[in-house]
Amino acid sequence: MRSLFSDIPRTALTMCYWAFLLYLLVPLILMMAMSFKDANYVAFPIGEWTLGWYAEVVQDKQFLDACLYSIMIAAAATLASTILGVWIAMLISVEGIRGQVVIFALACLPAVVPGMISAISLRIFISTIDLPTGTAAIILGHTVHSVPFVVVMALTRLRSMPSNLVDAARDLGADSVVAFFRVTLPYLGPAIMGGMIFCVLLSIDDFVRTFFLGGYRLTLPMLIFAKVQGGMSPEINAMATIVLLVTAAVGLYAEYLTRRSRTR
Amino acid sequence: MQPVVHFDNVTKYYGRTIAVDGLDLAIQPGKFVTLLGPSGCGKSTTLRMLGGFETPNSGKIMLAGKDVTRLPPNKRDVNIVFQDYALFPHMDVARNIAFGLELKGHDSASIHRRVLELLDLVQLQAYAKRMPSELSGGQRQRVALMRALAPDPQVLLLDEPLSALDAKLRQQMQGELKSIQEKTGKTFLFVTHDQDEALTMSDQIVIMNKGKVEQIGDPKSLYASPSSVFVASFIGDANLLQGTVTGVGDRATALNWNGTSIQASAEGHVVKQGDKVCIVLRPESIRCAAAASGLPNSMPGKIRHRVFRGNHTSLTVEVAQGSQLNALVHPAEAGALSGEDIFVGWEPSSATIIPEQIAAA
Q: B232, B258, B293 — which closes off a domain?
């Protein structure tokens, strides 16, 4: 009796988990399966299988251009938010600085402001300062959004850093700039790497901000959105599958890096 | 000889608490000098001020004849061995040691030579390419020491570097530190709260208390003739007896201790009849015997407590109503003292008098 009772909650927990996993994975698996369907509409059964759609996608100039554009924006936004984020984290970690909590809260705000609100306000802002929609505006929008993630990751690492490492560097003849570049920055390395990958993923994935701030050139999510508007085709499934696999791989690698930085 | 370090009336406050209070201290070159004191006595602050990590509120710090009071750490010719070593975790042993040399602008060939020479000094040649996380505590300690020695500083500062090691290793490192100091001829300024470390390694000990220097001297003279009760009780164990001077002689001073007459040495202090004084009597100076031994200060007593400590036995002896003495007895002699009633005694020269006004301070 006792073992039966104690088993019930556990079985229930396990079943809930499997239900969740099913709900998570079935749509993705269906989407991936459809990308191999040898027909120009999306429906069951699949019938004939083909790799033709992938061949089409990798030759699609629009797709390649959108990929390139997205990567370019991601690179620029990542660079900017990494520098800003590390800078803010260093500021917050200074002992006895006034308003530490406020600085931290403000730096983290962009992570919790709803994307829609942030996008609209940025749009109003850029038209106020006469900045045209397009590449620069998108990069600005993505940067603001990514900074908090870098701040949090860099700060976590900084807090675990023995304070006398910098003292030791200063003692051995380094001025504060040399101490930062030769001791603090290498120590932050894994956290910065993880933060950067996070920024790249956020930027590549972003739709709302890009939609409001973008010009005529399409980023990857915008292109997929536009294609869906024109009707579902297995080509979209193939594109989405490629994006899914690449981002999942990068994301897992980032998780691995941050895990390592926490344990070392 | 011109001192290599000179603290001139240095005072440091943290908010309202005074950490170092008008410190005057001169350190001679080539010596192993220890700042010894309880936690909060200002010894670490003194070291950090010399390192450049704290700025005094007033006073001057001279290093090799140069005023360094307000120079940042990187502009001072001193290096610190930190308590937790502070090795750079992303650099291997050789690069850690080379760090200070690189910043001084030495060329890579001479850096390489110097690193090998230093690794050789502590027998870590095989570990040049290891990362700090792959080293044992003692090895990290040695690397930290070599990293600080590498740029050839005027003074090497050591901030309780042995406190993280276990007892065995600590003893071994004490010997090693001392021999490295002798081999290199560097001035070492060592900070510790551990009297054993101070006694075994130092040429000179500076005892600090409440931000001030209490007494300076070599280990032997500090132990044999402490100038205050604080020093007497901080270095080694001591019986502290309260007494009144009853007679002043050439070699010994007669005293009244709770109604018992005893003799002790005034050691340079001027005392006169009727003065209230404190007498410092080391447990190992007290001789215990089964019969009255003919020693001066011989008196009967009863053993109240007996603690076996391996290489000696510690006795608590009641010599008069309410007057107790702690004595150390060699294992060979302890056997003869099986009964409760014994006699204790000591040479007058081994008991030091400290006048009351100093004892109270």
A: B232
